[in-house]
């Protein structure tokens, strides 16, 4: 070949010739792959770089003299092209065969130059730098499953074994934060850092709160528990006791329909169905001055003397900086959340509630309200002068809390990330409430970092691991972080995975999630073995219609502010027993020993870790974000069907639902347009892919009503938020229009229709992408 080059060089004037080399870059994502051929020319400089041959030089040739030389040169050029074609084809074929050897199911492939790819003059004994390993999704999933360890999960949970309290901002909470920080560092995460927040918390005073019975001028102490309810009003209140089942609005309405006045009363309700804060808000709206809650034995077995802790703030985050972050370098005027209860609240034991019911001696409870107590009276007898006195001695304190973060940075889009987090604090030992989630968080950080650092996997996007404090007070740590970075998080964080209370039983799965994640969650459940049966998948346990059983997020779920405040898709799931709640949650008996009573505890924790890990890895592995934006079309269509029943009722007050229907149609057309754009795009083009992914990311955020102040109405999501701007509130007003037309404010209804319509229309326009493609007419 050297002689051939010299001859050709002589033919064409002796100038140094450029030559080409083929390089193979394997681009892989999802379950598909291809081999990309790149043509690169060496620089024409002499004395080449490492891996580049020295250019060949030849002497000057005599000038051309006649036409024969020209014909000869033409024939030589044709021959040269033909030879070059053959050489290139054989080289290409050999390299493709080499590359195809990577598809042997080993899970990763290192692409190295073959002998046929080495041009003359290359050093064959030089060190070859291998290309990055390529991971296909099935192998990556198996790698995750193989590295998760029951033993590590048990060791992580054992950190809670000898502790009695991890109250936010106290020594045990801070020492646990330090331990998690050290663990993140030992896992060699790319970044590890803390966020400090300075918040106001209400804690128990120097003496226990007290519940007493006043009768015939005598005061009898009913109970003085160690537990308390944060953000209760302080002082003493007295009122007649009234039992209102679970404290739902329908329960209050039912007892008021009996002609029972709830003004100046102390309401009693059992735990469950809705959050304590919602129960208290309903009691305050009905006119009560105090509220008591207990654990009913029908749902919570073996809890006669257990008294749960809780909080009564109808919201999340620090209630004294609503809508603002509690950073130390910021100062805000004194303001309080509208979600503070304004009435006295306390939890009592089931035994104390039973003694109180026996004293009331009035009308017996409805059969469906009776629960598991032996005697159940709704109100005292008409001749009774018995009242209840509730004394609350809680105090306000200023505390510093720490959120701990660790990050694995993405290799293509490091500024786009999935966040997985767990509450760290608890009033008691908190084994089930905070220990399980923290153990899973640490194990996933260890395993995923190992896959990246030691196996060579390169996630396209980043993964953030977060340990929150003050979760028991209403997701305070998580909410303050969201408030502190609200200007950017919605454009960067595309999913939050909540690990709190992931194992509370064995029988069933409880799932709360954004519709954008339904498809991914379903596929994930199909790939995770059910630890209960040790055969089959979690999907078999959940059932094919599991979407119908999705539970709405509660205010006390750390995922709630991510979805309803920041517009970030979320998933929160866990194992539980359908007919029996975990009895020790939120009590001083939430210990590791009691948690171990759940059969297959550690396999269940491992299964939960596998679900969360697969979701995180899949969202950072694929070229396109695995967010099913079509699902919201189905959600809107479901509401459309419910609204249709009230068409005539709306027309009777001079309004129409047509504009709302048209907006839904616009959203469906926008979904179809994005599907076409994805199908017709060059998926290898990273710029195009990022633009399309950004359009998918914004779907959730665009359902936050832009017409409300986040300070006044922080939960602006029209599907999952709280307030008159939501689709559910609009539906309730339409129902009221039919049953009690005179009680409906038509102007308010008109405003509701307008705001919901334009929120959906705005979401459709944002999904389309370019402003010139939007449909500006209904």
TrEMBL record:
Pfam families: PA, Peptidase_M28, TFR_dimer. GO terms for biological process: intracellular iron ion homeostasis; receptor internalization; transferrin transport. It comes from the Eukaryota. It is a single-pass type II membrane protein. Stearoylated. Gene3D superfamilies: 3.50.30.30, Transferrin receptor-like, dimerisation domain, Zn peptidases. SUPFAM superfamilies: PA domain (SSF52025), Transferrin receptor-like dimerisation domain (SSF47672), Zn-dependent exopeptidases (SSF53187). It is found in: Cell membrane; Melanosome. Residues 656-767 form the Transferrin receptor-like dimerisation domain. GO terms for cellular component: external side of plasma membrane; melanosome. One of its GO terms (molecular function) is transferrin receptor activity. Its main location: membrane. InterPro entries: PA_dom_sf, PA_domain, Peptidase_M28, Peptidase_M28B, TFR-like_dimer_dom, TFR-like_dimer_dom_sf, TfR1/2_PA. Residues 239-303 form the PA domain. The keyword Methyltransferase does not apply. The chain crosses the membrane at residues 70-92. Keywords: Cell membrane, Disulfide bond, Endocytosis, Glycoprotein, Lipoprotein, Membrane, Palmitate, Phosphoprotein, Receptor, Signal-anchor, Transmembrane, Transmembrane helix. CDD domains: M28_TfR, PA_TfR. Belongs to the peptidase M28 family. M28B subfamily. Homodimer; disulfide-linked. Cellular uptake of iron occurs via receptor-mediated endocytosis of ligand-occupied transferrin receptor into specialized endosomes. Endosomal acidification leads to iron release. The apotransferrin-receptor complex is then recycled to the cell surface with a return to neutral pH and the concomitant loss of affinity of apotransferrin for its receptor. Transferrin receptor is necessary for development of erythrocytes and the nervous system. Acts as a lipid sensor that regulates mitochondrial fusion by regulating activation of the JNK pathway. This is Transferrin receptor protein 1.
């Amino acid at each position: 070949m050297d002689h051939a080059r010299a001859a050709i060089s002589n033919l064409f004037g002796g100038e140094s010739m450029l030559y080409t080399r083929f390089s193979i870059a394997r681009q892989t994502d999802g379950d598909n792959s291809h081999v990309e051929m790149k043509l690169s020319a060496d620089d024409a400089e002499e004395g080449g770089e490492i891996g580049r041959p020295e250019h060949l030089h030849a002497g000057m040739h005599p000038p051309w003299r006649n036409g024969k030389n020209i014909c000869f040169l033409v024939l030589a050029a044709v021959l040269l092209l033909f030879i070059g074609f053959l050489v290139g084809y054989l080289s290409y074929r050999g390299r493709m065969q080499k590359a195809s050897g990577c598809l042997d199911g080993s899970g990763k492939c290192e692409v190295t130059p073959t002998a046929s790819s080495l041009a003359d003059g290359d050093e064959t004994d030089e060190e070859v730098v291998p290309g990055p390993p390529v991971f296909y999704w099935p192998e990556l999933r198996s790698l995750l499953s193989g590295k998760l360890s029951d033993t590590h999960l048990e060791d992580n949970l054992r950190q809670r074994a000898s502790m009695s309290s991890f109250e936010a901002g106290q020594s045990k909470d801070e020492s646990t934060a330090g331990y998690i920080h050290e663990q993140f560092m030992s896992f060699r995460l790319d970044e590890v850092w803390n966020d400090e927040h300075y918040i106001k918390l209400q804690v128990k005073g120097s003496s226990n709160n007290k519940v007493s019975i006043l009768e015939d001028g005598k005061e009898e102490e009913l109970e003085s528990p160690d537990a308390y309810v944060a953000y209760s009003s302080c002082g003493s209140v007295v009122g007649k006791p009234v039992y209102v089942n679970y404290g739902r609005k329908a329960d209050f309405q039912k007892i008021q329909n009996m002609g029972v006045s709830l003004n100046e009363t102390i309401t009693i309700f059992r735990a469950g169905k809705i959050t304590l804060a919602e129960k208290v808000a309903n009691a305050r709206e009905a006119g009560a001055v105090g509220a008591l809650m207990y654990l009913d034995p029908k749902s919570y077995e073996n809890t006669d003397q257990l008294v749960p802790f809780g909080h009564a703030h109808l919201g999340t985050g620090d209630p004294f900086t609503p809508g603002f972050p509690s950073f130390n370098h910021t100062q805000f005027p004194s303001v309080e959340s509208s979600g503070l209860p304004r009435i006295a609240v306390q939890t009592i034991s089931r035994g104390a509630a039973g003694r109180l019911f026996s004293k009331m001696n009035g009308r017996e409870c409805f059969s469906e309200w009776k629960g598991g107590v032996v005697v159940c009276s709704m109100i005292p007898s008409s001749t009774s002068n018995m009242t209840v006195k509730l004394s609350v001695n809680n105090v306000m304190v200023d505390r510093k809390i720490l959120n701990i973060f660790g990050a694995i940075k993405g290799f293509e889009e490091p500024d786009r990330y999935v966040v997985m987090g767990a509450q760290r604090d608890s009033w008691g030992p908190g084994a089930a409430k905070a220990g399980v989630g923290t153990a899973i968080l640490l194990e996933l950080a260890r395993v995923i970092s190992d896959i990246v650092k030691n196996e060579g996997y390169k996630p396209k996007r980043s993964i953030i691991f977060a340990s929150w404090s003050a979760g028991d007070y209403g997701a305070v740590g998580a909410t303050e972080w969201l408030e502190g970075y609200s200007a950017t998080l919605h454009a960067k964080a595309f999913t939050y995975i909540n690990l709190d209370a992931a194992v509370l039983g064995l029988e069933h799965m409880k799932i709360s999630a954004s519709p954008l994640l339904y498809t991914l969650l379903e596929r994930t459940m199909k790939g995770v073995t059910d630890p209960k049966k040790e055969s089959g998948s979690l999907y078999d346990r959940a059932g094919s219609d599991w979407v119908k059983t999705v539970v709405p997020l509660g205010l006390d779920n750390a995922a709630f502010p991510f979805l309803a405040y920041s517009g970030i898709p979320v998933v929160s799931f866990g194992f539980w027993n359908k007919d029996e709640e975990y009895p020790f949650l939120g009590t001083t008996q939430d210990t590791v020993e009691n948690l171990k009573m759940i059969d297959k505890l550690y396999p269940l924790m491992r299964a939960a870790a596998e679900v969360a890990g697969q979701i995180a890895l899949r969202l950072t592995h694929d070229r396109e974000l695995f967010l099913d934006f079509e699902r919201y079309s189905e959600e809107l269509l479901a509401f459309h069907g419910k609204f249709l029943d009230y068409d005539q009722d709306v027309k009777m007050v001079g309004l129409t639902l047509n504009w709302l229907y048209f907006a839904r149609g616009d959203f469906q057309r926008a979904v179809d347009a994005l599907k076409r754009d994805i199908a017709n795009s060059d998926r290898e083009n990273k710029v195009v892919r990022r633009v399309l992914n950004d359009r998918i990311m914004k779907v959730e955020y665009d359902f936050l009503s832009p017409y409300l102040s986040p300070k006044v109405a922080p939960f602006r999501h029209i599907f999952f938020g709280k307030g008159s701007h939501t689709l559910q509130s609009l539906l309730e007003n339409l129902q009221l229009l039919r049953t009690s037309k005179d009680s409906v404010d038509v102007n308010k209804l008109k405003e509701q229709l307008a705001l919901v319509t334009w929120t959906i229309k705005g979401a459709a326009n944002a999904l389309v992408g370019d402003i010139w493609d939007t449909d500006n007419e209904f």
